[in-house]
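**User:**
My hope is that you can spare some time for a protein that puzzles me. This is the protein in question:
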Amino acid sequence: MLKFFTFALFLLLSVATVAQPLEKEETVSLQEVIVTATRAPKNLKNVPITVQVITADDIRKSQATSFQTFLETEMAGINFTYEGGMPNINMLGFSGKYVLFLIDGERMAGETFDNIDYDRIDLENIERIEIIKGAASSLYGSNALGGVLNIITKKAQKPLEGSLSYQYNTSKNHKSNLSVGTKQKWGNLKMNAFYNFREPYWLNDREPLRTYNNGTITEAPKGSLNVAGFTNYGLTPKLFFQLTPKTDLSITPNYYFSERNAGTLDADRVRDRYYNYTLQAKTNIALNEQQQLSISGAFDRYEKFNYFRWLNQREKNYHNQLLRAGMQYNLSLWGKHQMVAGAEVLQDELLSFRFNHTGTQAEKNSQTYTVFAQQDWVVAPDLTLVTGLRMDYHSLFKTHFTYRVSAMYQVAHFTFRGGYATGFRSPTLKELFTNWFHPWGGGFQIMGNPNLKPESSDNINFSVDYNTSRWNLTAMTQFSQVKNKIDNLWVSTKDTIHYTNFKENSKIISSEFSATYRPIPALRFKGSYAYYHIGKQRSEKRPHTLTFKAEYLPKTSVRYVPSVMLTGKYQSATTIYEENGAYTRYEPYSIWRLQCTSALPYHLSLSAGIDNLLDYVTPTTSFYASTTPGRTYFVGLKWSY
């Protein structure tokens, strides 16, 4: 291990030393990135709430194979576990149902184990990702107790642009992308398409899973885990029209298809197929220099089918459809006061065969009507205050209010942010109405609960940033208390799982620290650490996480001199407790990646590297273990104009 780190550091410093004579390239500071986390465009340095921004350049340099892999590798505060072969996100102690994912400000339909389909998101089409940590329901409504990830897609930047890329990984993973676009006086057009394919594979236990109970060790039989393969492709045209000097219109349709191959014998005859159809439209009207009106609407339908390969037939077993319409008014006064006010209508529709005991399809729906307002007031050059209020009227749960009070204070190289916010989450239609017999594991019934109450939370957060030309330091901590938390309750006498509201409040404390150091313009070191603790809960999913990145980045116009990047992520051990006091311990592990990228003639760039450099493979498969197959190698080629 020590030899490996010594070699990697020597490699980075050697490349940097050799390349010193190269012309220095100006770097783009994140402080100048424009974000919309407060629903009003602002420089990141002036946003009075805690927001992390990931740019398209960060994504390009990562050479990640998927959106999920990128999040898991780059961010200490985001980890994934696997249930039923599907990924489950954990962001600073909050699971997927408490983290709201948006694309260009619109909600995403469809979920599996409370998570969206992460394969829907095309990394090559992301301009930036804005991550709000902590409760954000005062602006974004239900599901935003733990945070919001708003994915902003790309627009064309040149009169004619295009790119074509392909990457192959020896895990039999193929990733390809196509993009064309044009920017004209009338507006611009951008079209992105992707195709991804991966073979399924199996992980076999090398050690038995050991459970400890009052000094007794029980060893489970060795097992195996099949990691599903897939075929995914999608197409997203994005049209932007400048109708008049003061009016614009954007239209973004989307189509996505996925076929999941579990790699089992059953998968030879039946596979899961997923379809997604999306349409977004938005118009902005500049009433004058201080006032703007936006009108938007979105349709998102996500469907699941059983596909019978031998018969070439399919059978629908699920669809989720979201239909939203909204209006927003922005007002700016004296350059010091900004106000945002708006109204929305959202319809949620769910069709499933799990809503009645007969196993036939049934459909449920709900509507939410919303009004919200937020003001951003620059009290003094170094002090900004934000207050926000939102009212949601749910067709099943009536009226719910959420609030936010935040402040930002800047002095010298320091920026302090802090505040209080409330959050809420309405029970999903699945949690309310499920009535399904689960046939595996001996069989048991899963029952919804129409008497569930919405979850609510109180969130207190504080962060401090320190920024100079060479150093960027950020520390953030937050405390959340969730009331009426919805979870599963096992009734052993009836072999039934019920959805229920827990009476005791759930307390979550989470912290994150990151540091970036640039000794020279072309060399950067970055590290981050995240920790969370859930009070009165007897299990935690790897509460400590660290990430490390060292990168040498020559000027992009220089050919043949490669950029070099070394990244790593360490996840701590965790102990999972059972109701009877027995527990199972899962050991810590780390995964490292080394890659090089070089510019070539004719607008080409070549990338190559090693995934899982130290060849880590979990000794025991489980929900809490990594699913990496071990050390793999990748190579990619990209043409861009």
In short: Residues 1-28 have pLDDT under 50 and may be disordered. The chain has five helices and 42 strands. The CA atoms of residues 215 and 590 lie 29 Å apart.
